[in-house]
Amino acid sequence: MPPLTADSLWADVLAVRQQQPLVHNITNFVVMNYSANALLALGAAPVMAHAREEVRDMAGIAHALVLNIGTLSPEWIEAMVMALQTARARGLPVVLDPVGAGATPYRNQAIAQLLAAGSPTVLRGNASEVLSVAGVQSATRGVDSAIASDDALHAAQALASHLGAVVCVSGATDHILAPDGRHARLSNGHVWMTRVTGVGCSASALTGAFCAVQADAFRATTAAMAYLGVVGEVAAEQVRAQGRGVGQMQIALLDGLQLLDAQTFKARLRLHHDE
Amino acid sequence: MPPLTADSLWADVLAVRQQQPLVHNITNFVVMNYSANALLALGAAPVMAHAREEVRDMAGIAHALVLNIGTLSPEWIEAMVMALQTARARGLPVVLDPVGAGATPYRNQAIAQLLAAGSPTVLRGNASEVLSVAGVQSATRGVDSAIASDDALHAAQALASHLGAVVCVSGATDHILAPDGRHARLSNGHVWMTRVTGVGCSASALTGAFCAVQADAFRATTAAMAYLGVVGEVAAEQVRAQGRGVGQMQIALLDGLQLLDAQTFKARLRLHHDE
Amino acid sequence: MPPLTADSLWADVLAVRQQQPLVHNITNFVVMNYSANALLALGAAPVMAHAREEVRDMAGIAHALVLNIGTLSPEWIEAMVMALQTARARGLPVVLDPVGAGATPYRNQAIAQLLAAGSPTVLRGNASEVLSVAGVQSATRGVDSAIASDDALHAAQALASHLGAVVCVSGATDHILAPDGRHARLSNGHVWMTRVTGVGCSASALTGAFCAVQADAFRATTAAMAYLGVVGEVAAEQVRAQGRGVGQMQIALLDGLQLLDAQTFKARLRLHHDE
To answer: In sequence order, which residues have a C-beta less than 8 Å from that of residue C57 and are 6 or more positions away?
Structure first.
């Protein structure tokens, strides 16, 4: 395949804005509101539904499914399995965000249960989470990561091959790895994005929206992470120039998801390929 | 009854600010925070409680009950039925927001179960949701609506008569329909209000607060929708003039709910009656 | 012990920023997002987890535990008991926020069940809630309080002695009472802090973070309340000077939690001791 370009990624942004895909989220309580607002700002349509009685129907009308294990309980895992199976049967893209993988045995069991029910199209997490899912022991500390994304690269590539899924390791550098060996690196973003709860989870939600309009999940994931990264670094610069902080960052991120223009995106994008 | 005037609706705003009614919400996870903040900004007092073990007691001390089915599960439906029965027995106003009605069979069953337990005082939804509740088939797509509110008018009037409840169909034009045939149309608001999650749900919560201080539910609902509509259009103008987006819109809406003054409200109000 | 000083309290702020303690929250749905953002803004690391299957493990890796009963259900109470027992066994500080105590019998039972499982390190609530926990009858109205914090002082002191815990009664004046008779009064803050949902709950979450880095829970609680109080009054002044309202207040509070400097803190602090 030809290498990704800023033009091709921007085309995906425009496709989301135009097609307004319906993204079914089964996600954690902390970030539901922010993820919904991020999807709306981007131009997609969010729906949150978790009851075992309706997740199959909801996944049946959605254009993408996003699963996030941040605040689990047994009923939610069952519902995620049901929705995952429906989505896979329909050929719907599925994004899995293994929040806090490695933090507790229960989270690891939940991830194993989900992966046994079907591979996701994309798995996105920080280095600690990806290493944990890949079976490499690590001490996850809540939902943040003290491990550099670069250090999870080999495990992530092996995981991508094993799952047949795109694996995205987010961090100072975002790595996107395809089962066929493609590898994109993004060095946009700002550290303040880790000081607003739900930005990582929203990255997964946005990835779902991009996968709904772009069948190449590697490209879709790269577009989502690139877009959010550029939005985040522009927002951080604006907020800091105003003497404001991470509260305002939360709002500026949403503004940017709606308003970022092609020129800024293309001028700012720092995308590298390893083939 | 005499037609509604800007003065009478504003009197209801002042009554909410002064009486600070306690509004018991059993609502969805996505919008709980925003609904609580909207009620606080307006001057009302929110309480969220959903356990079957306490909803009867909470509905027993509240001044209004708001039910919203956005993120259902069986225990929540049971709790809503209990709270609804308590509220009806106490003569408390009840607002029902049938979020996503028509999207899944489970939501339709839930609505049927709630309506069997007792009619709400007010049912508020978008055109798609109201058509679904009225038994007219439609393809709801998540929680937004591709159908114009005007197209739900006949079904909404029939539903109002059938339920003996005020029915509000929100959209570019908000229609408020009373069982006795009164019909108010509001053409305030701004399309960006649909790009912030929970604004529709907050409209239902605010309607609960207005019903707590104004016994004529038709007037109370019109006041709530008018107030929110004017707040929303002023907020959108300010936000756009600043070059900001839907993130800032979310905040400006809350500011406006607190600070909107009588002069702006009366000058901006676009209220029409059909009798 | 020597009386608390602005310098000693500020040292605790710096310790939180430097040590970034992991705070495990089992809290209510309304405030989860805001509490997480408040902890992140402060410089701490939040994790929310409520499943009975993992709360023991999560409390086992955290530096503090915060329990908040705002939106209870039976499974959540069980999980809180489990986490509380684990935390106590580990010598971990535990903050209990008895939201809505006295509003329903169910909440009172839940509090009794939690206290039977182990005393918290700190109990923080408004006057109505503290009076209710202390066994003094009062009519709580949702989660706000119509009773002045001063009127709960005797009950709060008795409760502190009985529980062997620090009791904090928040209000126009914040009272912090230690089992050994120490009593600090803070008169910072602004009434708009009660118009943003979750500020009180965030006070409890922040108290958890301070207790994680400062073994004297009386000092830690005073530092948390002092910091939030100064942040709140500065934020309110800025927001009002801009002609903005409680929406913007919500954001300015988070900005302030991140950016407040030593000079402003020390100049603004209004701390009084009764010994």
So the answer is: A103, A104, A105, A106
How far does the CA of residue B8 sit from the closest CA of chain C (Å)? 25
Helix-helix angle A32-42:B246-259, to 10 degrees: 120
Check whether C171 has a pLDDT greater than 90.
yes
Separation CA C122–CA C124 (nearest Å) = 6
Written as six digits, the tokens of C16 are 């939180």
Nearest CB among A36, A252, A255 relative to B30 is that of A36
Count, residues in chain C: 275
Q: Are C66 and C24 in contact (CB under 8 A)?
A: yes
| Shortest distance, CA B6 to any CA of chain A (angstroms) | 33
Which of C30, C32, C69, C144 would best serve as a mutation to test chain B binding (most B beta carbons within 10 A)?
Answer: C30
ipTM of the complex in this document:
0.95
Query: What are the pLDDT digits (tens) for B18-46?
Result: 999 999 999 999 999 999 999 999 999 99
pLDDT of residue A174: 97
How far, in whole angstroms, is CA B215 from its chain's centroid?
A: 16
**C247, B37: Cβ pair inside 8 Å?**
yes
Alpha-carbon distance of A127 to A148, in angstroms, equals: 6
| Mean per-residue pLDDT, B176-200 | 97
For residue B101, the SS3 value is: coil
Record the pTM. 0.96
| Contacts C247 to B, Cβ<8 Å | 37, 41, 250-258
Q: Which pairing describes strands C64-68 and B122-126: parallel, antiparallel, or unpaired? A: unpaired
Residue of B nearest to A31 (CA): B30
> Which residues share a beta bridge with C96?
C67, C123
Rounded to whole angstroms, how far apart are CA atoms C79 and C65?
12
Confirm or reject contact between B50 and chain A (CB < 8 A): no
* Closest by Cβ to B250, choosing from A37, A45, A46: A37
Which strands form B174-177's sheet, in the order they lie side by side? B45-48, B22-26, B64-68, B94-97, B122-126, B166-170, B174-177, B183-186, B271-274
Q: Does residue B26 sit at the C interface (CB-CB below 8 Å)? A: no
Residues with Cβ < 8 Å from A74, sequence gap 6 or more?
C51, C53
Best CA proximity match to A232, nearest among A258, A247, A252: A252
Per-residue pLDDT tens digits for B8-23: 999 999 999 999 999 9
Chain segment C11-48, per-residue pLDDT in tens:
999 999 999 999 999 999 999 999 999 999 999 999 99
Single-letter code of the amino acid located at B112: A
pLDDT at position C261: 98
Assigned token pair, A61: 């009308």
Element (H, E) at B167: strand B166-170
Residue A150: predicted pLDDT: 84
Report the mean per-residue pLDDT for chain B. 95
Contacts of B256 in chain C (CB under 8 A): 245, 247
CA neighbor of C274 nearest in space, from C142, C186, C158? C186
Query: Would you state the pLDDT for residue A93?
Result: 98
Q: C58 touching A, CB under 8 A? A: yes
Assess contact for C274 and C185: CB atoms under 8 A.
yes
- β-pairing, C122-126 vs C94-97, is parallel
pLDDT-based confidence at residue C147 (cuts at 50, 70, 90): confident
State the DSSP H helix or E strand holding residue A64, giving kind and residue range, or none if neither: strand A64-68
Pick the closest to residue B28 from B77, B63, B61, B64 (CA basis).
B77
Which of A22, A51, A57 minimises the CB distance to B141?
A: A22
Q: How far is C111 from chain B, CA to nearest CA, in Å?
A: 14
